[in-house]
Automatic annotation (TrEMBL), chain A:
One of its GO terms (biological process) is fatty acid beta-oxidation using acyl-CoA dehydrogenase. It comes from Nesterenkonia salmonea. GO terms for molecular function: electron transfer activity; flavin adenine dinucleotide binding. This is Electron transfer flavoprotein subunit alpha/FixB family protein. Heterodimer of an alpha and a beta subunit.
Length: 311, 265
């Protein structure tokens, strides 16, 4: 049976959709043990999920970017001899698994879209224009981070797993001086939403119409780098090479030209609709449906049509 | 020169993302042409800003690992403002995975450091290479050097040998601090890279570049064997352009009709 060690930098009161998704991946591959830097007040209750046979933590909480997180993963691996060590493709997890791979003398693949028990992984490379399959060359373990939206999130409740503390403590070399979380927009999470409305320079600072359209569609709001750089929305909304990669069923691009760096983050979307006043904008090359027109005219038409249909 | 600081910036020579990029029959990225990765201009800018603001002497070295053509990336880094350049090139580094890249770059960093007398050091990298896009090399290099890795940096301040870094991790914003030495991976949010002017381009011609191979680092080919190899690579089928309509006052309705027909509402 394939032994899978799943790393979460932290577990809060509820699993995030990405964590649920990773546990679904792991359960399909074999027997799962979770190793995490911290657990919430109610302990391992959020990890009471089918497939999770045990939980490992350190001696006291360890928060990213503390290098002891990697030591924790390496220590856990030293106990379990896993075939696979998996995490979500977030910067903190990439850092931890990268460092752990050094002490474990093991291969690493980041940003994978799938993994097998025998240490092969698929991923999309070169801004999403190529797909590759890579394989570790020796006996495992393979460390890999998995992109969101690569499996369903069907976690099945089960008995609460036992927690074992490993003798790893936070290092004092890195200190967190301040920490804050972005306020909740009340809209669906960008990387997990089934519909994304994204805007670019074309909105010229006014996001009202875009937000209205998103709310009519129950969509998350994304943006181009020009729009986040201008401060029209937080950087966390940036879609593209240096922002997030999204793959929703529907991506509506509003006033975005469709540069290669923007395409990198959205071209695997199910259906792409583009609204741009320049009929030669590159975004139309990849759009399933395009409107050459001014967004200030087209969006109000869409919004009122959606409202009319809702009656 | 005790009290002085040596900043080593890692810069990669990558195929231009604006042009079509291809993986060849040999399952290797075609690297006949390239540029200094745009994301690697940000650590260079961060290094130059520290140099301008720090109160002791600062030397900025640019280090690249890549085929002979990668010397172009070093040259560009010197024009932008690095003081000296280093280029590790070796046949055995072709098709290097993350593991191999970090082994070789760590040895190369130690080599570069050995050219300076005992100063403090700081390694600055980009957030991701534009071809490999693994974002894993900075943390692996840090682990091999036994020093902290602070990635996703949107601001880097150095004061009295102590680094204060703003970073974004998902929806969480952090201000973290660590002593030197450290590896800091700088995002494209951190700064606006400068362009080399004519004067800087002239000046760069006189700056020293050292080219070296694995043998000079005391590494055998066995020491840089990849852990991961590519089995297959195929281009993703290109998306095709669909219907484009011109707004005649009813394009919004037609768009909603399209969404409804596709079952997307
Ligand atoms: C290393 C690197 C990384 C990058 N990473 C990213 C990234 O992650 N994400 C990203 O998005 N970009 C990224 N970029 C930037 C990218 O190259 C483009 O500059 C950016 O995507 C352009 O944003 P935009 O489409 O909003 O602006 P523009 O390119 O200026 O396009 C604006 C569009 O709006 C249209 N428009 C204007 N007014 C209207 C109107 N009234 N109605 C309808 N349409 C209108 C125009 O016709 C135009 O097509 C990166 C660049 C580099 C170098
Ligand atoms: N071959 C290389 N030469 C120099 N620097 C590199 C090389 N590969 C990676 N780097 C550095 O590591 C960062 C992250 O790269 P990657 O992990 O490949 O996404 C880059 O932005 C560079 O600063």
């Amino acid at each position: 049976m394939t032994q899978v060690l799943v790393f979460f930098d932290r577990v809060d009161a509820h699993l995030t959709p990405a964590q649920a998704e990773l546990l679904t991946h792991a359960d399909a591959l074999g027997e799962t043990v979770v190793v995490t830097g911290s657990l919430p007040a109610q302990g391992a209750a959020p990890l009471a999920v089918k497939g999770v046979t045990g939980v490992l933590t350190g001696d006291g909480p360890i928060y990213a970017p503390n290098p002891a997180l990697a030591e924790l993963v390496a220590t856990a691996a030293g106990e379990l001899y896993p075939d696979l060590i998996l995490g979500s493709d977030t910067p903190d997890t990439v850092d931890t698994l990268s460092q752990a791979a050094v002490s474990l003398n093991a291969g690493l693949i980041t940003g994978a879209t799938g993994v097998t028990g025998s240490g092969a992984a698929t991923k999309s490379v070169l801004a999403g224009s190529w797909r590759t399959t890579a394989q570790i060359s020796e006996d495992g373990p393979l460390l890999a981070t998995l992109r969101p939206n690569t499996a369903s999130q069907q976690v099945v409740p089960a008995a609460e797993p036992e927690v074992v503390e490993l003798e790893v403590k936070a290092s004092s070399v890195v200190r967190i001086l301040e920490e804050s979380e972005l306020p909740d927009s009340g809209r669906p999470n960008l990387t997990e939403a089934s519909t994304v409305v994204a805007f670019g320079r074309g909105v010229d600072g006014d996001v009202t119409l875009v937000e209205q359209l998103a709310d009519e569609l129950g969509a998350a709001v994304g943006a181009s780098r020009v729009a986040t750089d201008a401060g029209w929305i937080d950087h966390s909304a940036q879609v593209g090479q240096t922002g997030v990669t999204v793959s929703p069923q529907l991506y509506i691009s509003v006033g975005i030209s469709g540069a290669i760096h923007q395409k990198a983050g959205m071209q695997t979307s199910g259906t792409i609709v583009a609204i741009n006043k320049d009929e030669d904008a590159p975004v139309f090359e990849i759009a399933d449906f395009g409107v050459a027109g001014d967004l200030n005219d087209v969006l109000p038409q869409m919004i009122s049509e959606l409202r009319r249909r809702k009656g | 020169m005790p009290g002085s600081l040596h900043i080593i910036t890692l810069v990669k020579w990558v195929p231009d993302a604006q042009l079509e990029r291809q993986i060849g029959e040999d399952r290797r990225l075609i690297r006949s042409e390239g540029i200094l990765g745009e994301l690697d201009e940000h650590p260079l800018e961060a290094a130059l800003q520290i140099k301008e603001q720090y109160d002791t002497e600062v030397r900025v070295s640019a280090l690249t690992m890549g085929p002979p053509g990668a010397s172009a990336a070093v040259k560009k880094a010197l024009q932008i403002g690095a003081d000296d350049g280093f280029h590790l090139t070796d046949e055995a580094l072709q098709a290097a995975d993350i593991w191999t890249t970090s082994v070789a770059l760590t040895a190369a960093i130690n080599f570069v450091r050995s050219t300076a007398s005992d100063s403090d050091f700081l390694v600055l990298t980009g957030m991701a290479s534009e071809d490999g896009e693994t974002a894993a090399v900075p943390a692996q290099v840090a682990a091999r050097l036994g020093i902290p890795a602070l990635t996703q940096a949107t601001d880097v301040v150095l004061k009295d040998g102590q680094l204060d870094v703003d970073r974004i991790s998902g929806r969480r914003f952090q201000k973290v601090s660590a002593p030197l030495p450290a590896v800091v991976a700088v995002t494209d949010q951190a700064n606006e890279p400068r362009y080399p002017n004519f004067r800087a381009i002239m000046k760069a011609k006189k700056k020293p570049t050292t080219t070296f191979s694995l043998a000079e680092l005391g590494l055998t080919h066995y020491a840089v064997e990849s852990k991961v190899s590519l089995l297959a690579a195929e281009p993703r089928p290109e998306r095709e352009a669909g219907e484009i309509i011109h707004d005649d006052g009813a394009a919004g309705q037609k768009t909603v009709e399209f969404l409804s027909k596709e079952g997307l509402l």
